[in-house]
Amino acid sequence: MILNRHVILASATAALVPMTVPASAHPHVFAEARLDVMLGTDNTVKSLRHLWRFDDLFSSTVLMEFDKNSDLKLDDSELAEVSKTVFESIGEYNYFQVITADGKDVAMKPPANLMAYFEDQQLIILFEAEPKEPLKLAGKIGFGVYDPTFYTALEFTEDANLTAAGLPSTCTSKVVRPDPDEAIAQNQASLTDAFFEDPASTDMSKIFATRLELDCQAKG
């Protein structure tokens, strides 16, 4: 099957893959991404909503692979199979989410479901995930998306595609797009030979991920 765990993996962005990693680690699949951080009325992070729109070439590959009745479109049962395949493939990679609170990883619940559909001949994936424990809007919180295998690039083409609407006045937000060379220089001490030989075998590829950072200060 063409659409397997190594082919559908999606993440950060092709531009963020440094020249120092092996050529085999460069993305082969591209998608435009949107991430909406949904907030609760109690000043907590309620959920993360993801939308991935894949490129025409990969979308047509998926169409041909899953179009079992050869009618050049995917019906509900065929789309359900695409959703199931994607869901199972990215699960072991935390659905390509990297969330931190004051530098510590935040555990997330698996999405309740994942939906796939086609629009303008492009494959679109939608899903929503919640923190395992209440995540207060306090300190510095980061939200990123990346593929540790570097196989596919999820590109946030505009800063407006990374949002947290309705932030309280005690919070500020910014989109961070790391420069690959600077990211390597800043993390040189923690990068091992294993990263440069096989970046997919480590979790350090997240240093290249485009991310939304919130800085929330307690009221004085």
Outline of this structure?
The chain is of the alpha+beta class. Helices cover 17% and strands 30% of the residues. It has helices at residues 56-66, 76-90, 180-186, 193-197; strands at residues 29-39, 45-54, 97-101, 104-105, 114-119, 122-129, 139-145, 152-155, 162-163, 171-176, 211-216.
Give keywords.
alpha+beta; 5-stranded antiparallel sheet; disordered N terminus; 6-stranded mixed sheet
How are the SSEs placed, and which strands pair?
Layout: E1 29-39, E2 45-54, H1 56-66, H2 76-90, E3 97-101, E4 104-105, E5 114-119, E6 122-129, E7 139-145, E8 152-155, E9 162-163, E10 171-176, H3 180-186, H4 193-197, E11 211-216
Parallel strand pairs: 1-8, 1-9
Antiparallel strand pairs: 1-2, 2-6, 3-4, 3-7, 5-6, 7-11, 10-11
> Could you spell the SSE succession in H and E letters?
EEHHEEEEEEEEHHE
Described by strand count, sense and barrel closure, the largest sheet is: 6 strands, mixed
Which range does the strand content fall in?
25-35%
Low-confidence stretches: 1-24
Helix content: 10-25%
- Using DSSP, what is the number of strands? 11
Distance between the termini: 57 Å
The gross shape turns out to be globular
Computed structural class = alpha+beta
Q: How would you describe the oligomerization state of the chains in this entry? A: single chain
Gyration radius (Cα, Å) is 18 Å
* Mean residue pLDDT: 82
**Tally the helices: what do you get?**
4
Return the domain count.
1
